[in-house]
Amino acid sequence: MPELPEVETIIRGLRPALLGKSILSADLRWKRTLAAPTPAKFIQRIQGQQIQEIVRRAKFLQFKLSTYQLIVHLRMSGDLFVAQGLYPPAIHDRLILNLKDGMSLVFSDPRKFGRVWLVDDPAQLFQNLGPEPLASDFSADWLYAALQARHRQLKPLLLDQSFIAGLGNIYTDEALHLARLHPLIRSDLVTVEEAGRLCMGIRHVLEEGIRRNGASIDWVYRGGDFQNHFRVYGRQGEDCPICGTKIERIVVGQRGTHFCPCCQVITDA
Asked: Is 75 marked active-site?
């Protein structure tokens, strides 16, 4: 699944081509891609809308239109790209927005998990999301207090989008290694110093991921090279870049989890 850096990279790639463009029509090729409103209302309302701004909230792409807001979540295999000129639909295309000047915005999704919303206000859709980890108000003090208020294993908590918005499996493993914290430590056992390291670790791996255009680890997401700089993720059996100990893999909450047993010691699970 594309995580925060991959979604941010996609948005930065779309902005130059799409800002100011008007939507002429919509070709909804798989109705269940649309979460709201009904297909008939969507096709009617999207026509004539101008794309005024494209931003990110957590892993959502948010297109601010002249009247409505178009919200897209890529989920496991979704992708958004701009096609120039006459575009022949492909087998996995679920929604095509035909734009002025002969362009198309294509939502492709082989596994059909991605969803699209057209709403007046996305507040209800975003109401349960936690803070943005790259926002100015995401601080070590906030993180320490929030960790102390929970009594959960650290990695599952960091993956909870209502706790922090945008983190996924890859960047959580990378941040925990950078902070030298075991993925199974209980959140309320994290010290002030450790919370500070974790805050910096989260910011660092996300910023580095964005700088490197995300991570390309399968056929879904393309173009990034952060996978060539992973510290632990996907590197089980290889040497830890800090101490040389073999990286281990365990399953936490049905997620493959990678860590160094020497750098990330657990004292109480």
From this structure: no
218 Cβ partners below 8 Å, 6+ apart? none
- Of the candidates 91, 86, 41, 108, the residue with the CA atom closest to the CA atom of residue 68: 41
Q: Domain limits at 254?
A: 140-259
Residue 32 lies in a domain: yes
- What total of structural domains would you count in the chain? 2
Least confident stretch, 82-86, 174-178, 181-185: 82-86
pLDDT tens per residue across span 67-79: 999 999 999 889 9
With 0.85 as the threshold, say if the pTM is over it: yes
Residue 134 domain flag: no
Is 241 considered catalytic here?
Answer: no
Tell me the per-residue pLDDT of 121-151, one tens digit each, with 9 for 90 and over: 999 999 999 999 999 999 999 999 999 999 9
**Alpha carbons 97 and 228: distance in angstroms, whole number:** 34
Q: Is 59 an annotated catalytic residue?
A: yes
Check which CATH number belongs to the domain holding 216 and give it: 1.10.8.50
Q: How far is CA 54 from the centre of its chain?
A: 15
| 264 part of a folded domain | no
CATH of the domain at 38: 3.20.190.10
Annotated active-site residue in 21, 56, 59, 94? 59
Which of 2, 5, 133, 156 does the annotation list as catalytic? 2
pLDDT at 215: 86
CB 173 within 8 A of CB 209: no
Q: Is 111 a catalytic site residue?
A: no
Q: What is residue 225's predicted lDDT score, i.e. its pLDDT?
A: 87
**∠ Cα 180 185 189 (to 5°):** 95
Are the CB atoms for 65 and 109 separated by under 8 Å? no
- Cβ atoms of 215 and 227 within 8 Å: the answer is yes
- The partner residues of 23 in beta bridges, in order of sequence, read 99
For residue 119, is it within any domain? yes
